[in-house]
Write a structure and sequence with these properties.
239 residues; Rossmann fold; alpha/beta; 3-stranded antiparallel β-sheet
């Protein structure tokens, strides 16, 4: 599904609303908790601020939400470049979510990727043989079509057996990152892309058309929903 909204602010508001809608839908059923992977970027930062404010804040049962991160930069905890710091400042420090429900990435540890994969499996109750299904994954996209920390032509795009890998030599700083792989992304029940700005227009069009030379074009959930949120600058003409 493609939704083209007038402005970046409207994209952020719609992303916040989808978070609430998905959380309420999952928690209204038999699921013990709602699992979501957050993304970085300014559009999602605004969405998180909206989630931390009334009325959306009160619409989510935060005690039953488990937070993960689709990627993280390999910099020390608390560093200004970390996605988890941005999420805490915009959202997590302002809602009543238990500390144990926020699963951050120990990105500077030697086995950060393996440790995060093991922790994710344990939290979601998935066996070693199964690919766990997150309820919602939020994804941004760069002008080159990268998403999470999956970059064009990078070997991580071919990772079929690992759910989380370490990236070396990323084409934008910092060069080392931890990222979800395509098998984990494509197992999600719902994936929401947010892309804003004219510099994303070409990559968005290619990704939506399924161009696999664009990493975002390889995100095609096998049994889930894929939603693109675009502003007019990025998505005009794609309705």
């Amino acid at each position: 599904m493609i939704e083209v909204l007038a402005t970046k602010a409207e994209v952020a508001a719609r992303a916040a609303d989808l978070f609430v809608e998905e959380a309420r839908s999952v928690l209204a059923g038999a699921a013990p908790f709602f699992s979501v992977a957050l993304a970085g970027g300014t559009t999602f930062a605004e969405a998180y601020r909206l989630l931390a404010s009334a009325p959306r804040r009160e619409a989510v049962d935060w005690a039953r939400v488990h937070i993960f991160f689709g990627d993280e930069r390999c910099v020390p905890e608390g560093h200004a470049d970390r996605n988890d710091r941005a999420a805490r400042e915009a959202l997590l420090d302002h809602v009543p979510i238990p500390f144990a429900n926020v699963h951050t990435i120990a990105a500077t540890s030697a086995d950060a990727a393996g440790g995060y994969e093991s922790g994710l499996r344990a939290a979601l109750g998935a066996s070693v043989a199964a690919v766990p299904r997150l309820d919602l994954i939020l994804l941004g996209m760069g002008p080159d079509g990268h998403t999470a920390s999956l970059f064009p032509d990078h070997a991580a795009l071919r990772a079929n057996e690992r759910l989380v890998v370490r990236i070396a030599g990323a084409p934008k700083p910092p060069p080392e990152r931890i990222t979800f792989t395509l098998p984990l992304l494509n197992a999600a029940r719902c994936l929401v892309f947010a892309a804003t700005g004219a510099d994303k227009r070409q990559a968005a069009a290619r990704a939506i058309a399924g161009d696999e030379s664009v990493p975002a074009g390889r995100v095609r959930p096998s049994q889930g929903r894929l939603i693109w949120l675009l502003d007019e600058a990025a998505g005009g003409g794609l309705r």
